[in-house]
Batch of 2 targets.
Target 1
Amino acid sequence: MTAERSVRKAGPARVDTPQNPVVLLADVDVTYGTGSAAVVALRKVNISFTAAEFTAVMGPSGSGKSTLLKCAAGLMSPTSGSVRLGDLELTAMPEAELAVVRRRKIGFVFQAFNLLPALTAEENITLPSLLDKREIDREWLAELIRKFGLEERTGHRPHELSGGQQQRVAVCRALLGRPDVIFADEPTGALDSHAGQQVLDGLRTAVDTMGQSVVMVTHNPVAAAHADRVVFLADGTVVDKLEKPTSDAVASRMNRLERRA
Ligand SMILES: Nc1ncnc2c1ncn2[C@@H]1O[C@H](COP(=O)(O)OP(=O)(O)OP(=O)(O)O)[C@@H](O)[C@H]1O
């Protein structure tokens, strides 16, 4: 059986949540290494992410943000607990099946853009769909290019684009396949504030007008203030949440956590 055909449905959810979550982590623990070298990176994390919701994940260095993102995106398996994407249980799913799930259902945006230098902006945007032998929705592609202000740049290669334009290409690439969720790891970390603002506005628009679920790790309170809520981690545990965050409120909670760390 091909990996595509064998992507399994999970059993009933173990945790009730008010809305149908796109991603649900239940009792997730992650320990790196063993014995005296063991590092506990996540402890009993319970969290869900829903459609049309923009979540920022914050916390001091080493608090477990990247580990949380990797588990939620099926890039690593937790030591124990459950990670569900819709009705798919990702833990213990064989890697070949996970790769298909990631390709079809998850969009990624990284700090370092990760564009292929030899390809034009448009080729970078369409590459994952082509590799997956999916037909390109040309209308959707044109709409994304327009929304992200890249009409004059589709034929340019990454080195001919500004950092902000490169990241907008990466966001379009993530959105083209209409993923269930987009995970963004410090998407504005390498950008100046104006370029960062454009990328964040694009993600915000994707949430508001396309019902996209976006989960973003950031160190920047101004970036986090674009989200609907901020989840704060400390020592591998969710210690706080802030709805409708302002950058001042986020900065003050982060100060408190950093003093504690
Ligand atoms: N591969 C690994 N092997 C051992 N320990 C690891 C590994 N990856 C992460 N850790 C440890 O797990 C903990 C959580 O790391 P993680 O990278 O998730 O934190 P973070 O909040 O993303 O940090 P930062 O903000 O500095 O990127 C840290 O103590 C880190 O040293």
Note: Residues 112 and 190 are 7 Å apart (CA to CA).
Target 2
Amino acid sequence: MSGHGEAQPMTARKSGPLKGVAEVPGDKSISHRALIFGAMAVGETHVTGLLEGQDVLDTASAMRAFGAEVARHAPGEWTVNGVGVGGFREPADVIDCGNSGTGVRLIMGTMATSPITATFTGDASLRKRPMGRVTDPLSLFGTRAFGRQGGRLPMTVVGAADPVPVRYALPVASAQVKSAVLLAGLNAPGQTVVIEKEPTRDHSERMLIGFGAELVVEKTAEGNVITLTGRPELRPQRVAVPRDPSSAAFPTCAALIVEGSDIMVPGVSQNLTRNGLYLTLVEMGAEIEFQNPREEGGEPVADLRVKFSPNLKGIEVPEERAPSMIDEYPILSVVAAFAEGTTVMRGVKELRVKESDRIDAMARGLEACGVRVEEDEDTLIVHGLGAGGVPGGAVAKTHLDHRIAMSFLVCGMAAKTAISVDDASPILTSFPIFEGLMTGLGADLARG
Ligand SMILES: O=C(O)C1=C[C@@H](OP(=O)(O)O)[C@@H](O)[C@H](O)C1
Ligand SMILES: C=C(OP(=O)(O)O)C(=O)O
């Protein structure tokens, strides 16, 4: 939904020890895909653990507009009666993807090879984000797109009536672009090939195989070569969405920096394309035990026991790890502020085209909290002040960005003086129970 209601300021104060179990909601990436792939299957897909955040709700509405039947039966329990590959009907109205880059880019890919036209828009944040990275490869199928200057929304996409399959090497490490091309390839005859130099989250590949598509991933010197055979009949599935490791990052990092904390965070994905933050935290000296490794919803997961870690050290984060922790740099930069020494994050320019320019938002907010930060186009460097050393006492601007809002609220739980955010409402896009979950652990979080 692009209508943004009133700003909701929120304040976090230095909190007592966090204790208890942090059961975070379903994975956002997998939730979007469960609805979209379900809409491409013939018959009823049953989803449990669906994230009921606004981003995913907007994708559910979009799937209805394209002709799928989408119904909610209980919290997290949804069904999708799909229309089959190539079965989308033309929506009668504009598709509003709200705040969600994943939603709009994957849906554009899905309709791009059907003979229909759709117009997409989103909120003020999404309307600033580049869509050319998706419409450029879609044009190879024969799709046409007409947006605002710089390839921005609102944008009308005219699907290819007679699509051809494509071979496309990703110029940017992006699972959204990879997925958009694969989804378009579903309704192109023959084989569509996507080549990614650096591995990005692989949920689309795993789930397409689960839904019955013929998809092969070869690891070669040029990177992953993903070959999809077009026009499969996708079979409906039962999808159990695992918890979101990107949401789990917030209680995990809060427990590391709030004195005396000791919490459990169950079911955190250990998928190598998603677990970069957790590797990095361990390298910084975080006290995290990975218990009970197992599989849940097709993903490797573990239960995390996380304790206050007073001896965190700054590190240089390996640049090649960026795709596996791309959404976690904002909260990592907060942990870095409570570490001894300097944390260097290179190869992070993609953060500038997320819901906000996350390098700028973190740098300005941390500076206002008394932390020394350096940045250039592709780098963020945080000079840590050690456990309990962050002065705080600032109001951070969140720029319609849920991860910036949650990062500064976590920072405020451990800083000397309270930290407020100007608008916490974007948190509802990805982690609607954040406030209740964190206060339940003992965080001092209040509206206003
Ligand atoms: O495919 C996905 O589900 C996502 C891919 C990433 O975006 P990019 O593809 O822009 O890197 C990530 O930041 C986003 O939160 C979710
Ligand atoms: C970047 C994100 O999401 P999206 O691109 O889907 O808006 C995110 O959730 O951090």
Note: The mean pLDDT is 97.
